Structure prediction request, 281 residues.
Amino acid sequence: MPLSTAEAAFHAAYDALLARWPAGTDELDVPTPYGTTRVHAFGAEDAPPLLLLHGGGATGTVWFRTAEALGAGHRILAVDILGDTGRSVPAGLPLRNPADLMAWLDALLDALGLSRVHLLAHSYGAWIALTYALHSAHRVDRMVLLDPTQCFGGFRPAFLLRSLPVLVRPTAARALAFLERETAGTDTDPEWKRLYALAAEASAGRRRPVVGRRPDASPLRAPLLVLLAGRSAVHRAADVEARARRAVPHAQVETLPQLSHFALPTAIPAEALDRIGAFLK
Prediction:
């Protein structure tokens, strides 16, 4: 079936962002009972595996700076989350609830031949990562969450109101205007912003991300680093920090004062990437 104009533009933008990944990046299509999962893989195959889970609508291509910074010491595996935008293809068993999502991740790691991984995740992906670390604790070594949503606090009502038009009637122009407001004053990558906007229109009516309740993080035993966006409009960083410290006393929680929620991960400063690398070691 031929692609629509919106879909063709999305795939062109996707390939443009892929071109900015380090040389030697492999594109893997990994079969699972829930469909084929696209994984961007970089780094030595025998290096410690680091699974990256993107924010809603961002696609796995968003991690190009992270791959370059951390790929020397890790096997980077950046996933297009099944049910969200990207090149993963749902097929077979349906993804209906968080239990299915956890089973998909288990199957993905099995197919990749991985018994344990580090997790690095942003926003919606951070909710998936935390839920998975509680579900399959034996498979998670260390975890880094970037401005996590629905993990230690809810959304600001004003943010939900602003995002509603993009969710209800997504167009590239509407999504880009929303993103420009949410990233104003940051160095968020313009090519990624264009991809996000095109993805919103191209996947309209077909995007089916699995969502669920905020998990109880108190049983978490994996070492945890939480980096919050000080200018996040999604939630109040100070409130999330306090709740994260109460829920997981052993967690290391820090705030990146100049960043907004959607500026992560393309505008994350080099010092923060160094901090993540040191934590994962």
Observations:
- Strands lie at 26-32, 35-42, 49-53, 75-79, 89-90, 117-122, 140-146, 224-229, 252-256.
